[in-house]
Amino acid sequence: MQGMTASDPVDCMKYVVVTGGVLSGLGKGVTASSIGVLLKSAGLRVTSIKIDPYLNSDAGTMSPFEHGEVFVLDDGGEVDLDLGNYERFLDIALTKDNNITTGKVYANVIEKERRGDYLGKTVQVVPHITNEIQDWIESVAHVSADGSSETPDACVIELGGTVGDIESAPFIEALRQFQFRAGKGNICFVHVSLVPVMGPVGEQKTKPTQHTVKELRGLGIIPDILVCRSEKPLDDETKSKLAAFCHVSEEAVVSAHDVSNLYQIPISLYEQSVLSKVSNHLGFKVPTKLPKLDEWRAMANKVDTLENQVRIAMVGKYTGLSDSYLSVIKALQHSAFAVDRKLVIDWIESTDLDPNDRTEKYDEAWQTIRSADGILVPGGFGNRGVEGKIAAANYARVNEVPYLGVCLGLQIATIEFCRNVLNIEGANSAEFDEDAPVHAVVFMPEISKTHMGGTMRLGTKPTPFLVDDCKIRRLYGGVDHVDERHRHRYEVNPDLIEKIEEAGLRYVGKDETGERCEIMELEGHPYFVGTQYHPEFKSRPGRPSPPFLGLLKAACGQEI
Asked: What are phi and psi of 383, to 5 degrees?
C-alpha cells in the first residue's frame, strides 16, 4: 500500500485492537490511550471504543468497589472509567455508543428479533450477535469525536476482560471476523500481557505470555505487537524467547515497564518504535516532526521535576480504592501541573471525622485535615460518613481553608451552612434522613424512584452565571455560562435558597430555569466553592478544570 502522510486523506478506516491476557488490571486502557496519543501526534484523527463484556447495559448501577468510578459523558452515558482515560489522553468527547457492553448488544439483537428483522431465522451468537458487534464497531468508528465534522482516520478498540474468559468469547469471535471485513492492512492487533519475575534470581518468566498468545491464536487472532507488562525493562533474552514462541518479531515485543509517571508511557512506547510498527502495518507514513508529541514529552518531563508540594485532603468513603475517584485525582493533578506544584493527596475516610462516633483514627484524621492546604469533598451516594464530611466543610468554612465540594460536596456544604449559620436545627438531606425536620437538600421531582439505571440527571447541561463577578466565573474566563456534566438525584431545596443567600452563601450559577442551584460561592472566603455538576470529567492535562484550578491556586496562596 502506498504510504500516506499526515496531510493525505486516509483511504479507509484504520483499527488498532488492544486485548489482554493472563490477568486483568495490566493497563490495557492506558496502553490503548497511549497508542491513540501516538496516532494523533502523527496527524491522524482518532476515536476510540471500549468493549466491556458484562451483561449490565452500562456502568451506572455498578459499585465503585466493583468497577471503579462511573465516568459520565456529554450525552449522559454512564460508562467505564477507561473512556475517561481516552478523553483525557486524546482530548476528545465520546458518546455512550463508544462503550459496547454485552447487555447493549443482546438487547439490540433481541429487539430486532421481536420486530421480525431476522425473517424467522433461529437467532444465534454466530452470526447474529457477532454481526451486531461488528456493525456497531464500524458505525461508531466513523463518528467524529474531536469536535469537528471530519470522519476519524483511526479507531483504537480496547477489549475489556481477559482472553479466554467465557464472557469475552463472542467479542473475540466478532473481532476475528472483523479483521476480514476491515481488510488485513487496516487492522493491527496489540496484545497486553504479564511478564512476572519469580525466584531469588529475578528471572523474567515468559510462560504466562506464551500461553495467552497461544490461546488468542487458537481463537483466530494473531497479535502483531506484544506489550509486556513488567516492573523492569525486558531483557534481550526475554524478548528473544517471546518472539520465538509467540509468532512475532523481536522488534514487535514491547516492554511496558514501570515509569516515573503515567504521561511517560506514550513516550516509552514511541522510543520503542511502536508508532513506526503500527504505521508500517496500517500503511501510513509518520511525519519527520511530531510537535504534539514534543508537547506531550515536555509535560511528562515537567511532572517529574516538580518539587514544591501542595497538600489536598480528600474526604470520602471509598478512600481505600483510588479508582473510585480517578477523574477527581486526574483533575487535581492537571491543576497542580498548572500551578507548578507536586500534588500530595491525603486520603481521609469521612467516618473518621465524625464527632458523634469517634473512631480510633479520629485524632489522626483531624490532624491531617489541619495540615492540609485545601479540602475536597467529592461526589458520592449514601449516608455513611456524611457527618464527617459535614464536619470537614465546617472546618474549611470557619478556618478559611480553601474548599471545593463536588455534587454531594456542594450539598454537604449547604447542610452545614443551614445548621451552623442559619441555626436550622436538624437540617439534613432527604437522601440521608427522610424524617429530618428541615430538608436542605431534596429529591428532584422529575427523577424516578423505582428504577436506578440511567434515571439520574445525567450529561452536559448549561449553567448560566447570575452575577457579574465572582471567583469561579473569573476562573472560567468570564463566560456567560458553562456546559458541564451532571450525575445526581438530589438538589438544594429551592424553598431555602433566598434565606441561604441572604446569609452570604451565594448560588452564583443556576440552571436555565433559574431554580436549580449549580454553583455556590461563599462571600469573603479565600475559596469556598461547590458545584452540583462534576467538573472533573472535562479536565485535561493541558486544560485543567476551572473549579479544581481555583482550589489549587487558593491552596498555594495564588491570586484568583
From this structure: -95, -5
Instruction: Give backbone dihedrals phi and psi of 232, rounded to 5 degrees, phi first.
Output: -115, 160
Task: Confirm if 99 and 52 have CB atoms less than 8 A apart.
Answer: yes
Report which residue type is found at 187: I
CA–CA dist 125, 174 (Å, integer): 10
Given a cut of 60, is residue 451 above it in pLDDT?
A: no
Tens digits of residue pLDDT in 362-399? 999 999 999 999 999 999 887 788 999 999 999 999 99
pLDDT of 2 over the 60 cut: no
Q: What value, to the nearest 5°, has the Cα angle with vertex 203 and ends 200 and 205?
A: 125
Helix (H, G, I), strand (E, B) or coil at 532: coil
For the stretch 405-431, pLDDT in tens is 999 999 999 999 999 999 999 999 998
CA 86 to chain CA mean position, Å: 8
The catalytic residue positions are: 407, 534, 536
Q: Rounded to whole angstroms, how far apart are CA atoms 504 and 482? A: 23
> How many Å apart are CA 521 and CA 410, to the nearest integer?
10
**pLDDT, average across residues 521-536:** 97
Closest CA to 483 of 550, 539, 533: 533
